[in-house]
Amino acid sequence: MLRFAVAITCIGVAAAAAAALSAQAQAQTYTNPVVKVQTPDPGVIYSNGQYYAVTTSGDDADSFPIRTSTDLVNWKQVGFVFPHEYVSYPLRTN
């Protein structure tokens, strides 16, 4: 009878652990694209716990946004390679 009780307890603990791992796995999922705007030609580097991504910017050739992330899923735009105020030549002819 004691073996049966131990076996049932072990099964219960294993089930609880499996449920916790399943919940944790679901919390770590994401949906592509992780950046909701057009981000062609990405380049990503990693330095000191931070990822940095630079992309071309589609229609705004003078922008080239810079984004940062710690997990490759949640990105924050922090600036531009070529900020608008420093671009002094016409980029569009239309």
Would you kindly provide a brief summary of this structure?
28% of the residues lie in helices and 21% in strands.
Q: How would you characterize this protein structure?
A:
It is a single chain. The chain has one helix and four strands; from the N terminus they run H-E-E-E-E. The protein has 94 residues and is α+β, with helices and mostly antiparallel strands. It has two domains: 1-30; 35-94, no CATH class. A four-stranded antiparallel beta sheet has the order 1-2-3-4, with no helix packed on it. A hairpin with a 6-residue loop joins strand 3 (65-69) and strand 4. It starts with a helix and ends in a 14-residue tail after the last strand.
List keywords for this structure.
2 domains, alpha+beta, 94 residues, 4 strands, 4-stranded antiparallel sheet
How are the SSEs placed, and which strands pair?
Layout: H1 2-27, E1 43-47, E2 50-54, E3 65-69, E4 76-80
CA gyration radius, whole angstroms: 24 Å
Tell me how many strands there are. 4
Q: What does the main sheet amount to? A: 4 strands, antiparallel
By DSSP (H or I, 4+ residues per run), the number of helices equals 1
